[in-house]
Structures are given as C-alpha cells and as structure tokens.
Write a structure and sequence with these properties.
The protein is of the alpha+beta class. Helices cover about 25% and strands about 30% of the residues. The strands form 7 sheets. A 7-stranded antiparallel β-sheet has the order 8-9-10-14-13-12-11, with helices on one face. A 6-stranded antiparallel β-barrel has the order 18-19-22-21-20-31. A 6-stranded antiparallel beta barrel has the order 24-25-26-29-28-27.
Length: about 575
C-alpha cells in the first residue's frame, strides 16, 4: 500500500489557468485551513482541502457545504487525480519526485518572517504572462464535422451535458448543435488551448469526457459481469469488493468502513414476487424511511436518505425474472453519487440466467437479518395500553422522547396528543382509525398491601409477537418519599415492560409501570414503581379522554388475566 492510498481531499474548484487558480486559492486560504492547489493536467488546476481520511473528508464536506463556505458541487477526490502541487508555495504533499520540497531544517524550524516575506512576494510579484501553446488538432474542421455526424442524438445530448458541467453551456439539452452549442464548444476550445473552430474533434470530445469523468477517478469504475445473477453493469470496484451471495442479493461491501455498498438483485418470480421485494426492501436499514417510492406493474424505484447515506434501489420484472441493483453511498458526495448512479443505470444489462435460491454458503441465522441485510429497527420499544375504543394509548414519556416517528404494534403511525412531565405519562393517538381488541378498565383506589399484581409488557422490545405477563406483589401504596400517587412493586420487570399496564388480581389496571430509573435513584432489580390509576385517569381527563373505571373485583384465573393483558397491551416504538 502506498502512502497516498486511503487519503481523501475535498475538491472545491477547478480553474482553466494557473493565474485564476492562484487568485482563487489565496482567497480560500485567507478563511479556510488545509487549502492546497494542484495541477490537473489539460490546462486545469484544482483547489482542494486536505489531506484527510475518507471519514474526515466526508465530515468536512458536509460541514462546509452546510455553512456555505464551499460550492455545493464540491466533492471528494483522491490523490491519483492530482499532479504537481502549486500551493502552498514549496509544498509537496503528494511526494512527487520533481517537486522542490523544503529542507529538513526549514521544516523543523519555520521562520514566520520568512513566511510573511514569501507571501508578500507571491502577492507583489505575479508570474509573468506566458503565451499559451495552441495544441494541434487531430482532425481538420471537415473531418471533425464528419465524425460529429456519426454521433447519436443521445451522444450529442451527452456532449451538451458535459459542456454544461464545464461551465460553457446553459441552454436546452436537445442534441441540436445550434449557435449556442457551437459557441460553447469554441469557448471550451479557447480555455483548453485548442484552435478555436466551434467544432470539437474526436480527440477534443475525448478530452472533454475525461474532464467530465474526473470526478469518478479513484473509485475504480469497471464493468462487472456476474453470471450467478445474470447481470452486467458498471461497479465502483476501487471502493467496494464482492463478499457473498445471499439470495436474492449479491453483496459488494465497502473495502474500508461501512460505506459505500452495492447490491445486485436477481430472482425468479412474478408480479407478487416484485411487490413482495418492494415491501421487504422498505424494512431494511439500507433503505431509510425518508425518500420517494415509486412502483408500477413491472418495476419499482426506492430512494431512502438519512444523515449518513442515500440509497437508490430499482428492480424490474421481465420474462419471469426480477433483476435490479442498489447503490448505498455516503451523504455529502452528491455530484459523484449522481454521476455514478447514471453510469450504473446506463450500463445495467440483463444477461442469461438468474440467481438460484441455493446460491452462496448461507448466512448465519438471525431474526434481525434478511438475506444478510439488517432490518431497520426502532431506537427504542416500550409498552403501553389501550384506554378507549378510538385507539388512544397511555405510555411513558421516555418511550416517545425525540422520535421522528412513533408506531403502535410496529404497523400503525401514532402521535403524542398530550403529555404530563410531572407524572411521566404520555397519551398517544393513531393517525388512522383503529379498533383495539380490548381496552383497559382503570381501578378506583389501591389494592391491598402484599396482594398479587401483574405487569403486562413487551419485555423483549417486540422480539416476541405477544406481551409477556410478569407476576409480583404490591409492596407499598406510596413511594419511597411518601408520594401517594406511586405504588411500589416487588417484581422483576425489563425495560421493554415500561409504560405497560399493572393489573390487580381481578384484571383491572391499577397503574402504569414507570421506568426502572424513575427519578434520580437506581433501583434494585426486584423493585419497581407504578403511577396509580387515579393519576392516569386525571391526566386522561385533562386530555379530554373518558375511560371506564371499576372498584375492586373478584380475582380471575391466570389464563383469563393473560388473555385480557394480550388484548389490552400495545407495543410502542420510537424511530
């Protein structure tokens, strides 16, 4: 491995002359650290920040973009993109042999006065203007026109796209080479020291394309033909490598860190298979919830994005085969991601064959994995209970704090309609009409001391499909500080039970289980507290919710209590 491998830069500008590049690099250096200038070849000069690790480069790119310190089209670049360094004066961060580097003693003992003098010299003694050498054309204008006529409409439109990217064209992308396109070609030729004719030769078009694709340098874009999946396409093999088959996916994972990632998708099936894949993909961690989704009879496109990455998945059904791909790319590198995605789409080719369900060596069995991909999971899951026929739910505030999304029983979106910080109670309502199988009946008054109680909750935070009932006893009818609204319990509850209903022996709800670390003290494992039903009812009344109440009832059989708990308890998840 060379010293430059793994090093990343944030390229913020490219200028068509050294004088322009020096002017811009000084402006950036006056307000930003780590500013460097490099020759790109072809008469272009880059201004870049660095050197950084790839992770740090992504962080710097996001931060400076967000603050407006650098252009929105800045992107991550790598050392092999650059040639000789021209800024700072005398620097040679790429360790190129022809560079004149400072001596060891100069590097060890920098002289501020000398640095200031050097800066003044740069400002006051600009480089003498050298007449640019006009590069000879590889074709005459007539020959260039003949080669141009062989271009397809798509190729002509791509040429306009490249001229637009280079900053020389701002009209419609229509493939028609009129006055505006000819003028932009002439300006590009002038900036790159070619004879100005307004007609790009074959070699000039190749040079424009090389400049356009420079943003993809360093990611090792190459054509991959995979006979197991029956797919051929361009894949950035410089940053990912094949790891395994896990039907219906072929996994290409990042060589360094977690991102980027590429998946090839291949399986036999019909429209039901396609629709099922569409639904399953949306449960995976690689497809964040935010982003557009589009599905039709024969295909779908899924885009998901969060603060860390953007994923693009598309698949199509043809001749009984579902094939497609996913690209998961770090956020903050949008121009490169967009360009790479365009190359992958354009190169995607269905070849003979489809992945067998038996392909690969098999994944370790894990309830949280689907075909080797992690299922998207909530930040936290706790318990709650239905209190009316409209689907109103009581739970603990801690269960729904700082959530982007709240769900009930993993399927139904809900929102907080009332909360009471003094009691720790939150009241939720589903965003769509629900009719729960059972609702809680709140007990009036406290049960007898040392009587049997039971907590119903999703102890394992949703890993089990039904709530667990944990039995214990009522140790005290008040809190440790004499709080009358608290009830002390002797039982071994788990964090997933918090917010769940506490039942008396007759099946009435006598309170809501509070978090184990409620207040400022850490409680022993076999001690818990519940906020009593009278307090829960008072908070519900403030929110305008009427509930059923009952006085003490005769004890019921444990089987009946379990059935009542299952119908009454709800899984509350914070995403």
């Amino acid at each position: 491995m060379t010293a430059q491998e793994g090093i990343a830069w944030v390229q913020i500008e490219a200028q068509p002359s050294l004088n322009q590049a020096q002017e811009r690099v000084r402006a950036y250096a006056a307000r930003l650290p780590d500013v460097n200038g490099f020759n790109l070849g072809g008469g272009w000069y880059a201004i870049a920040l660095g050197p950084y690790t790839q992770t740090d480069a992504q962080r710097v790119l996001r931060a400076y973009r967000a603050d407006g310190e650098i252009p929105r089209d800045s992107y991550i670049a790598y050392s092999n993109t650059f040639r000789q360094q021209f800024w700072p004066v005398g620097a040679n961060l790429l360790n190129l042999p022809e560079a004149v580097a400072p001596t060891e003693s100069q590097a060890a003992t920098p002289d501020p006065d000398a640095e200031q003098q050097a800066a003044v010299q740069v400002e006051t003694q600009p480089e003498p203007q050298v007449e640019p050498q006009i590069k000879p054309a590889d074709e005459s204008p007539a020959e260039a026109q003949r080669s141009e006529r062989a271009l397809t409409r798509e190729e002509r439109m791509q040429l306009q796209e490249m001229l637009k990217w280079a900053g020389f064209y701002n009209a419609a992308i229509d493939g028609a080479f009129g006055r505006g396109t000819r003028g932009s070609m002439a300006e590009w030729q002038r900036a790159n020291n070619f004879e100005v004719t307004g007609i790009l030769t074959t070699a000039q078009r190749a040079e424009l394309k090389r400049q356009y694709n420079a943003i993809l340098d360093g990611i090792g874009l190459e054509t991959v033909r995979d006979d197991t999946t029956g797919i051929e396409m361009m894949v950035p093999m410089g940053v990912v490598s094949f790891t395994k088959y896990s039907p219906p996916f072929a996994h290409f994972d990042a060589k360094n860190g977690d991102l980027p990632r590429v998946l090839l998708i291949s399986q036999q099936g019909n429209q039901d298979t396609l629709y099922g894949l569409f639904d399953i993909m949306q449960t995976l961690a690689i497809v964040p919830e935010n982003g557009p989704r589009e599905r039709n009879r024969n295909g779908f496109v899924l885009v998901g994005e969060n603060d860390e990455f953007i994923s693009h998945t598309e698949a199509r059904l043809e001749n009984g085969e579902v094939k497609g791909f996913s690209l998961i790319w770090p956020r903050g590198d949008e121009e490169r991601r967009t360009r790479l995605l365009s190359e992958m789409k354009a190169s995607f080719t269905r070849t003979e064959g489809v992945m067998s369900p038996a392909a690969g060596e098999g994944d370790a069995q894990d309830i949280d994995l689907v075909s080797g991909l992690e299922i998207r999971r909530p930040k936290v899951s706790r318990s709650g209970f239905w209190v009316d026929g409209n689907g109103t739910v009581v739970t603990t505030i801690e269960a729904v704090a700082q959530c982007e999304r709240i769900t009930l029983d993993a399927d139904y979106d809900a929102e907080v309609v009332f909360s009471d910080a003094a009691t720790g109670i939150a009241i939720l309502r589903p965003k769509e009409a629900l009719s729960p199988a059972g609702v809680a009946t709140l007990r009036e008054g406290a049960p007898r001391l040392q009587s049997q109680i039971a907590v119903s909750g999703f102890s394992y935070e949703g890993k089990l499909t039904a709530p667990t009932v944990t039995y214990g006893t009522l140790s005290d009818v008040k809190g440790l500080g004499g709080e009358t609204q608290l009830k002390r319990l002797a039982l071994n509850a788990l964090p997933g039970d918090e917010g769940g209903p506490v039942f008396d022996a007759g099946g009435s709800v006598m309170g809501m289980l509070l978090p184990h670390d409620f207040g400022t003290r850490k409680l022993p494992e076999n001690v818990g507290f519940a906020i009593d039903a009278d307090t829960v009812r008072a908070v519900l009344a403030k929110a305008g919710v009427q509930v059923s109440t009952v006085t003490e009832q005769m004890p019921i059989e444990p089987e009946d209590l379990t059935d009542r708990a299952r119908d009454t308890t709800v899984l509350v998840s914070c995403w």
